[in-house]
Amino acid sequence: MGKVVNVRARAAKPELEVEAKRVVGELPQIKPGEHEGEKVGVLYSLPITFQISGE
């Protein structure tokens, strides 16, 4: 199975970047991509939206 690696995040506040990376790091292992029978890395974007109360 494949691991999620090289996670990058952008956010208005550093704390939100840290939390987004934490959440993505908790994803289960996934089936790796294949090309012509070889396992290959796959770039993937996962939009995460935080709803913050009290601001």
Major sheet = 2 strands, antiparallel
Total DSSP E strands: 2
Query: How many discrete structural domains?
Result: 1
Detail the poorly predicted runs.
none
Mean pLDDT: 88
Describe this structure in words.
The protein has 55 residues and is of the alpha+beta class. The protein has one domain. Helices cover 22% and strands 11% of the residues. It is built from one helix and two strands. The longest helix has 12 residues, at 14-25. It is elongated, with a radius of gyration of 14 Å. It starts with 13 loop residues before the first helix and ends in a 15-residue tail after the last strand. The model has no long low-confidence stretch (mean pLDDT 88).
Task: Describe this structure in a few short sentences.
This protein has 1 helix and 2 strands.
Output the keywords.
alpha+beta; two-stranded antiparallel sheet; elongated
Question: Could you give the topology of this structure?
Answer:
Elements: H1 14-25, E1 33-35, E2 38-40
Antiparallel strand pairs: 1-2
